Amino acid sequence: MKLLDNISLILVIVGALNWGSIGLFGLDLVGYFFGGQLSVMSRIIFSLVGLAGLWCITLLFKDKVPQGDRN
Fold first, then answer.
1. Which of 44, 46, 57, 58 has the fewest Cβ atoms within 10 Å of its own Cβ atom?
2. In this predicted structure, what is the pLDDT of residue 64?
3. Model pTM score
4. Is the Cα dihedral 28, 26, 7, 59 positive or negative?
């Protein structure tokens, strides 16, 4: 699950940077690099970022104490 957590966090960061570029500069970087907002590749990336965001919600509720440190 650690790999899935890391991939999800990377995708969420990509989404956050894309939203930041839209807010600050009016530039959709994903759409720019992958052929527009409605291209198949852009829609796949947007969908993956959305799914990663949903997965990252679970990170809020995971036990933060490493298993070796429990009494």
1. 57
2. 72
3. 0.79
4. negative
Question: In angstroms, rounded to a whole number, what is the distance separating the alpha carbons of residues 48 and 57?
Answer: 14
Q: Which amino acid is at 58?
A: T
Q: Which pair of structure tokens corresponds to residue 27? A: 């530039």
Q: How far apart are CA 19 and CA 26, in angstroms?
A: 9
Encoded tokens for 15:
């989404």
| Tens digits of residue pLDDT in 14-56 | 999 999 999 999 999 999 999 888 999 999 999 999 999 999 9
